[in-house]
Design a protein that fits this description.
Blueprint lengths: L3 E4 L2 E5 L5 H8 L2 H4 L11 H17 L2 E8 L2 E11 L4 E8 L8 H16 L4 E7 L3 H10 L2 E9 L6 E10 L7 H7 L15 E9 L5 E6 L10 E2 L2 E3 L6 H13 L8 E10 L4 E9 L13 E6 L15 H8 L1
Parallel strand pairs: 5-6, 9-14
Antiparallel strand pairs: 1-2, 2-3, 3-4, 4-5, 6-8, 7-8, 9-12, 10-11, 10-15, 13-14
Bound molecules: 8-OXO-2'-deoxyguanosine-5'-triphosphate (8DG).
8-OXO-2'-deoxyguanosine-5'-triphosphate (8DG) binds next to strand 9, strand 12 and strand 14.
């Protein structure tokens, strides 16, 4: 896998051999290195070459992904994820050259990488730790929706000896889309600002397509959308001039290339839930007849799931009460 991720004016791409001198220039700075546990100071140039070669090997093996944070072809810093397959987690680390601090770059890059990992890698959690005397980095994690899990002690090569770190965890449910990233991904419009009273009701329609083997079609929310990586019933927002049924027909055509007829879609149940920044009202229809084969037209992953296995697919919280109803029906 050779992912390239974009967010705002930044591009995150895997480190390349040619990055060694730029990386060395930025990281061989006491103010940067003292916050990174595994780097010595001074940081010899040869270590940059060896480190990049190692990261390339590990990304081929699917163990770790270390991205260069690039803007206008200039390397600003790095963000990396090291996976632990056994605990289904990835540990997140990031640093920026001193000239690039204070501009929201770390939040944007770390958020993009963490959400990509939760969508793409076989993990359920992203973990991170931050030196106790690094409040700027802790603020980045909190802004992204990470929560504190405890304090531990960790050995820092650059400073010598053990130093206290605060540990954090983020999951698909807690990691929010940062404002900077929302600007570029058109995802902010379904969520009013937290302070805007009264909270608006968001009308979303969805349908459970059921095939002849009694399996239900689920779609994985793609990267860049809120709740990325969670499985949902296909559907989407009802536009102002549409009926819910018209919206359903449009969404299935756009997202899956499937033609539904309103005569074959039966109202089944609905969800009405406070989702924080909006109130979700989601009628769910059942549909056993349609035209065409569902295709992932928006890059989403699709799965036909037997009723008994629906629990194995993490879904947004409002969907959870629907699962027992479907199981009973099927
Ligand atoms: N389609 C769908 N949305 C769900 C489900 N459960 C749930 O909480 N939602 C929420 C997630 C989103 O906040 C909202 C759907 O918005 P969306 O952004 O996916 O809608 P859309 O397809 O119109 O997206 P877009 O074109 O505006 O990007 O409803 C579900 O099972 N299906």
């Amino acid at each position: 896998m050779n992912p390239t991720l974009r967010t705002g004016s930044l591009t995150l791409r895997l480190l390349e051999t040619g990055d060694a001198s730029a990386l060395h220039r930025q990281v061989n700075d006491w103010s940067v290195v003292r916050m990174l546990s595994q780097l010595p100071f001074p940081y010899p140039r040869e270590l940059a070459d060896a480190w990049i070669a190692d990261t390339r090997k590990r990304s081929q093996q699917g163990d770790a992904y270390h991205f260069a944070i690039m803007r206008d072809d200039i390397l600003l810093g790095c963000v990396g994820l090291v996976t632990d397959h056994r605990s289904r987690s990835a540990s997140l680390g990031y640093w920026l050259g001193r000239d690039h601090w204070g501009q929201g770059i770390a939040t944007q890059a770390a958020g993009r990488a963490a959400r990509w990992a939760l969508t793409t890698l076989p993990i359920d959690r992203v973990i991170a730790d931050v030196a106790l005397d690094n409040p700027a980095s802790a603020a980045v994690l909190r802004r992204l929706g990470f929560s504190e899990t405890g304090v531990a002690s960790k050995s820092f090569l650059s400073r010598g000896g053990e130093h206290p770190v605060t540990q954090y965890v983020g999951t698909r449910d807690t990691l929010t889309t940062s404002d900077a990233e929302a600007d570029t991904h058109d995802v902010a419009h379904d969520e009013a600002p937290a302070s805007a009273p009264p909270r608006r009701t968001l009308l979303v329609v969805a349908a459970a397509l059921i095939d002849e083997k009694q399996r239900v079609l689920l779609a994985k929310r793609p990267e860049g959308k809120p709740l990325a990586g969670l499985w949902e019933f296909p559907g989407g927002k009802v536009e102002p001039e549409e009926s819910p049924e018209q919206a359903l027909v449009r969404e299935f055509r756009e997202e899956l290339g499937v033609e539904l007829s309103t005569a074959c879609t039966a109202p089944f149940t609905f969800v009405s839930q406070d989702c924080g920044r909006f109130h979700l009202l989601m009628p769910l229809y059942l549909c056993r007849r349609w035209r065409g084969t569902p295709m992932p037209r928006e890059g989403q992953e699709l799965a036909w799931v037997e009723a008994g296995r629906l629990d194995a697919y993490p879904m947004p919280a409002p969907d959870k009460p629907i699962i027992p109803l479907l199981r009973e029906l099927l």
